[in-house]
Amino acid sequence: TLTQAEKAAVTTIWAKVATQIEAIGVESLERLFASYPQTKTYFPHFDLSQGSVQLRGHGSKVLNAIGEAVKNIDDIRGALAKLSELHAYILRVDPVNFKLLSHCILCSVAARYPNDFTPEVHAAWDKFLAGISSVLTEKYR
Ligand code: HEM
Predict the structure, then answer these.
(1) Does 84 contact ligand 1 (Cβ within 6 A)?
(2) 88-116: per-residue pLDDT in tens?
(3) ipTM associated with this complex
């Protein structure tokens, strides 16, 4: 669980990210597919060319889900319960991929807001994304 200071850091950086949901969502997915091309196998039905309608739509969905987790930072499990079932039972995404996507989201945020991305914000944002990943993968067990 996040400390009060970590929650504050997450909320502060999120206020910036929230103004760039689609751009940061698309960039995160583009980084994921470029650096870890095996992740593309989950999206055979998508047009993965740069800036495609599907990439923009999906990037926005992923970042909006993270926004829901920020809003419900004391009950991330409850906020993401449906998504957790979707990823585990229907999509069957291998849990290793959540670390990869989290890393790409972290890079996208850092690249866009370098001055805000202090070591403290980095650590809090990383821990927050790891928390989301563990909620989204806990149904596998
Ligand atoms: C769908 C969020 C990680 C693969 C979705 C949706 C959301 C979402 C909001 C749309 C659900 C709906 O339409 O009701 C997230 C979040 C993640 C995450 C917050 C972690 C931070 C991953 C990873 C993969 C993945 C790591 C695989 C590499 C998919 C696929 C779909 C999906 C294949 C269905 C896409 C479609 O057909 O429209 N995810 N996801 N997700 N996710 Fe994730």
Answers:
(1) no
(2) 999 999 999 999 999 999 999 999 999 99
(3) 0.98
The residue whose C-alpha atom lies closest to atom 40 belonging to ligand 1 is 62
What is d(CA 17, CA 39) in angstroms, rounded to the nearest whole number?
Answer: 24
- Overall size of the chain counted in residues: 141
Is the pTM of the predicted complex or chain greater than 0.90? yes
Task: Name the amino acid, one letter, at 13.
Answer: I
Atom of ligand 1 nearest to the CA of 129: 21
CA 88 to the chain's CA centroid? 16
Q: What is the pLDDT of residues 63-94, one digit of tens each?
A: 999 999 999 999 999 999 999 999 999 999 99
Ligand 1 contact via 65 beta carbon (within 6 Å): yes
Q: Angle at Cα 132 formed by Cα 74 and Cα 78, nearest 5°?
A: 45
Which tokens hold the place of 52? 């495609």
Residue 73's Cβ-count burial label (10 Å; 0-12, 13-18, 19+) is middle
Q: Give 122 Cα–ligand 1 centroid separation in angstroms.
A: 23
Ligand 1 centroid – CA 107 distance (Å):
18
Report CA 43 to chain centroid distance, whole Å: 17
